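Usage example:
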Amino acid sequence: MRPELARIEAALARWVGAGAPDGLAEAMRYAVLDGGKRLRPLLVLAAARAAGSAGDAPWLAEAALRAACGVELIHAYSLVHDDMPCMDNDVLRRGKPTVHVRFGEAGALLAGDALQALAFELIAPLDDEPCDVPAPVQARLTALLARGAGARGMAGGQAIDLASVGQRLDEARLREMHRLKTGALLQASVEMGAACAGALPEAARDGLRRFGAAVGLAFQVVDDILDVTADSATLGKTAGKDAAADKPTYVALLGLDGARAEADRLFGAALSALAAAGLPDTAALEALARMVVARDR
Amino acid sequence: MRPELARIEAALARWVGAGAPDGLAEAMRYAVLDGGKRLRPLLVLAAARAAGSAGDAPWLAEAALRAACGVELIHAYSLVHDDMPCMDNDVLRRGKPTVHVRFGEAGALLAGDALQALAFELIAPLDDEPCDVPAPVQARLTALLARGAGARGMAGGQAIDLASVGQRLDEARLREMHRLKTGALLQASVEMGAACAGALPEAARDGLRRFGAAVGLAFQVVDDILDVTADSATLGKTAGKDAAADKPTYVALLGLDGARAEADRLFGAALSALAAAGLPDTAALEALARMVVARDR
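Running the assembly step on the lines above writes:
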């Protein structure tokens, strides 16, 4: 997926901060460029490839690139705000000082806010920017991203997380929190990729949706495992901080071996869902699911 | 405009916080409901009425209501984040404790983030919510709102504002800051209302755009005047804080009489632009422009 990664980086470098006042542009670019696994945008491109292999959509590549960058900007803004002193108060991210350390709290707050808006600017640009993506595709991408980012998605999951520090959640509640906090945006990535192709058979849409849900949950289980087993240098962020903050995690709930078994089970569910989608070109999606489960940072 | 106001309040009460986790929903509703002049949503509805009076768009009322609530949510989130300790550190807003005072800083940060996402969820809903607004209208509303809210709009203006505390701006730079910080979203309100009607003659679109720009700037000039002349009880927020923070304002630049003359000049420019739009039903827009200039809070 090296060419896809290069396209994503180039597009982000072109779009992020363009037209913004100097200081704000610098903080936005610092938050987004030169870092991150780009898992979400890669999922968008891979899902677009799988969904597009059936039909003929000349705008597919552009729609997928805009959607890929949009979802990455939502992810990036959430990290900027999460790291702020009033939230996780973290000073290290992707091996660099966090945005509020570098640009001040007000600068980080504003950069995050502007990144969220930019996600939607990219997906639905005004007439002064050339864009060949049909309006119905733009509208559906907006809907999926907004739902995935908002109170019924990522922001809702963070709110549950915030309220649950020091509490003992049962597995159902923990799963619900993660389904929203991390899963919603990962699932949205897959669904957005699928939406780039326009209309899809119901089986394909449903299979991709279930694939995204399983990968999203697996990601969080592995995150919880790495928080315990990896060191800060490898992670590029502070390790062990969930345990230190007495946050509920899969490891706390299931033990380390139980969490590993759960990650494997979710990987299997993702592959079954993908097979049920009945699409020809799903190798990249499969590889990304494997990467999510096998990653060491 | 009492019926319009009632429709806006009812729609916000129905939409804000729906489906969100309890604590988050409460903070979002606290930030939005039961307060505010609703100037931006009223501008959307008035512009939709003016633009729609020419053609026949059965979805017009729904599109305008969704757009009206969307722009109000962007405004509301910006106030929540602005009031936070790292920005203006304000404890009073609309006569009530600010959101971070009531729900903590992390709660305010998340509520603001979720409100921004909700703005786009309302304008471009997923299939599980009934919506008769055509996709091209949804896409254009998204584009206008995202641009108005982002780094080339409101967030950009706030960044300039932040960087300019204690600095002496000349009139051109001050005007540019306010054009973005307050003007962009007010102008977007008018353009979003116009977009609800679908295609419009170029003269109408241009006239409404210039009307929105003049009203947006007039709003800020009057804000600067009120910061000096009104008391906190009338304003429902802390008076005199711009001067205390040594922020550049129109009053600091032009003096009180000069600022008043500038507000009058902009009101005249707004009415001229409206006349040039050549639309039949512009009484509500005219009344709103008058309200912006004559308001005492």
